[in-house]
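DM from R.C. (forwarded with permission)

"hey, sorry to bug you on a friday — could you get me a structure for this? deadline for the figure draft is monday and I only need the backbone to look sensible"
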Amino acid sequence: MTRFIGPAALFILTTLYGLSAPTTYAADVAIVSNTVYFPDKPGCTVRLTEEIASGDLEKLRAAFQQVNSGSDIAFGSLCLNSLGGSYTEGLKIADWMLSQNVFTVVEPNALCFSACAIIFMTGGDFEDGRSLERYIHPSSQLGFHAPFIIKKLLPDRAYDKDTLAEAYQLGVRAIRDLAKLGQQHNVSDRFLPKALIAELLDKGPDEAFMVGTAFKLVRLDIRLYGYQKPTVSIETLGNACLNFLFKNGLDLSLDDAPPPWVSRRESVRKKGSDIWFGGFGGEGSE
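My reply, with the result:
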């Protein structure tokens, strides 16, 4: 079984093809509310906590079927609080989620790493094609990681080339399956953007790519809720324009946020009820 891991300071959860690993326990899946419509989103219909393990997809299906009166199409929201777990089961859940009408939420002070983070990115519905709808609270943590063989979990001995080649192929297939998941559901660059896949592959076995800035949230199309709204000013409006401008169509690292608007010292011109910001290219911005 292939596993994702979160930061080493939290837990080591990674194994490949039956290598000895810590005892695992299935996630806790609980129905929170029988209400599937949230006029003031977010809210929780079903909550998944603890380590993700084999069989958790069936738990989720059963929970949503109970809420949705036996329907095979799930409606509502899924709240997540997990350090990760089974990569294989995480992909199964993600595949199922991409065909459901379920948005995802990371609640206040919750942690969502690795396999949990992949599931989080699948939230959405089919109101107008396949839309993606993911919510996160500023006090929570979201981190991505690629599957790894952890040296600490392997006996301290030499391995033959066939064993190492098999491990390498399993790692390649794991990333391939992750990349193909979005293609199969026609949400390739919105489910897991190429920039995010590059970042998680760049991290070592003891690292995770953390999503902790407004720029990363905008680039990854993740909605922030429960935050203190900033004071509206020329500077905050300028920064909002920059984040919007840099959201799509630019081949930038997720760590390459544009400098704050105030430091760029572009011209500002008021025209009636509009404020025009200069310096954004030929098309301008208003």
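R.C.: lifesaver. Residues 1-24 have pLDDT under 50 and may be disordered.
me: no worries. Residues 229-286 form one domain.
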